From TrEMBL:
<protein>
    <recommendedName>
        <fullName>Rhodanese domain-containing protein</fullName>
    </recommendedName>
</protein>
<dbReference type="InterPro" id="IPR001763">
    <property type="entry name" value="Rhodanese-like_dom"/>
</dbReference>
<dbReference type="Pfam" id="PF13649">
    <property type="entry name" value="Methyltransf_25"/>
</dbReference>
<dbReference type="InterPro" id="IPR036873">
    <property type="entry name" value="Rhodanese-like_dom_sf"/>
</dbReference>
<dbReference type="InterPro" id="IPR029063">
    <property type="entry name" value="SAM-dependent_MTases_sf"/>
</dbReference>
<feature type="domain" description="Rhodanese">
    <location>
        <begin position="46"/>
        <end position="88"/>
    </location>
</feature>
<dbReference type="InterPro" id="IPR041698">
    <property type="entry name" value="Methyltransf_25"/>
</dbReference>
Length: 379
């Protein structure tokens, strides 16, 4: 079904690219769709959100582009899938106009782009490309006409501002938008426990020496690390995969937080793994959060209990697959060592006797139906 949706989006883009009128029709449909798609968005993060993926060459993007777009040139997309939205999230793409008037060449180019997204398929789930537009003079004129028409009534409904969605880019915000999303559990953690002035006094503080610190264990490509850095934290991202750490650094640069994200090549299997990570923290007295997302090496938990600073008002948050995954449609992970028993396992380790106050211990379900154990405690 998703493959058909993506194919239709590219074919419709080609069919609607020939005039201002047809581009406007497709633009109107996309804007109406945007109303329903934004119902569940978190207003706190709306400022950084992008709606469009612009696949054109970088020089063309710099010359003319929309504010709510992110530029990943088509030639680079295969190595940049980690910068795209979650698979279930609808988004729109902008593609380059053909270099000639040969219809067959245009169709071939579109087909190549469509197939590239399908090759990036993960576990049978395709990206949800709902709309595609050929970024040509007709599209630019359609955008300008729509902006003029909507001047008197700028709201599409549901808080969606047409002028914001279709506004032209400016240098200040050009690299700050994102299509990708951090873990929903991390967003909720920040909103519930970390965003208050008592807990996080550094979002508007330019003095890096006073910023609270996050230790992100098993950080992967760094989406959660970069997200928390954008909220003002200094982050040490720890992972064994050097390629993932390199992507973390690239993402941090892309979003202007390279000074707030450090990386550490780190092996959780070492007996002193947590102390190794902790010793790389610039100032342990500023440590505010020890974080793990979809990463599990159970011997690590006893190390954290032993060495995490006492009476430090530091949070421990772990979000990982729960028992029951083995019975899901995906069926993985399915080994006990890779699954957390909610309301039991972590609660029995991070106890009151060890100085921890359990703040959350429950189960949620990710988009593919697998259960996730969500545990938050404070020491």
């Amino acid at each position: 079904m998703r493959t058909t949706t993506t194919t239709d989006a590219f074919l419709r883009a080609l069919a609607h690219s020939k005039s201002v009128e047809t581009q406007t029709l497709l633009l109107d449909e996309m804007l109406r769709s945007l109303i329903s798609e934004t119902e569940s968005l978190d207003d706190d993060d709306d400022e950084d959100r992008a709606w469009f993926l612009d696949l054109r060459p970088r020089e063309k993007y710099q010359k003319h582009s929309l504010s709510r777009s992110v530029n990943i040139p088509f030639d680079e997309i295969s190595g940049s899938f980690h910068l795209l939205p979650p698979r279930e999230t609808p988004f729109s793409v902008f593609v380059e106009e053909g270099r000639d008037d040969d219809e067959e060449s245009l169709v071939s180019s579109f087909e190549n782009q469509r197939e590239t997204f399908q090759r990036g398929d993960f576990k049978g789930v395709q990206w949800n490309i709902k709309y595609a537009f050929v970024y040509n003079e007709h599209f630019i004129n359609a955008v300008n006409a729509k902006m003029l028409k909507m001047q008197k009534d700028s709201s599409l409904g549901n808080g969606v501002d047409t002028h914001d969605v279709l506004a032209l880019n400016n240098e200040k915000k050009k690299n700050k938008r994102r299509l990708w999303e951090p873990s929903p559990s991390v967003k909720e953690l920040y909103k519930t426990f970390l965003s208050s002035s008592e807990t996080n006094n550094n979002k508007n503080n330019n003095n890096n020496n006073s910023s609270s610190i996050v230790l992100d264990l098993g950080s992967g490509v760094g989406r959660d690390s970069v997200y928390l850095a954008s909220k003002g934290f200094d982050v040490l991202a720890c992972d064994f995969d050097q390629k993932a750490l390199t992507r973390t650094q690239e993402m941090a640069r892309l979003h202007g937080v390279e000074d707030k994200v450090k990386v550490l090549k780190w092996d959780a299997r070492n007996d002193d793994a947590f102390m190794c990570a902790l010793s790389s923290v610039d100032d342990v007295s500023r440590l505010k959060l020890v974080l793990g997302v979809r990463f599990c090496h159970k011997p690590l938990f006893a190390q954290i209990v032993k060495h995490m600073p006492a009476e430090s008002d530091c949070f421990f948050a772990w979000f990982h697959f729960a028992k029951g995954c083995e019975h899901s449609k995906v069926g993985r992970p399915n080994k006990e060592k890779d699954l957390i028993a909610p309301n039991e396992e972590l609660r029995s380790i991070f106890t009151k006797n060890e100085g921890f106050e359990v703040l959350k211990d429950d189960v949620s379900f990710i988009s593919d139906g697998r259960p996730s154990a969500n545990f938050i405690a404070r020491r």
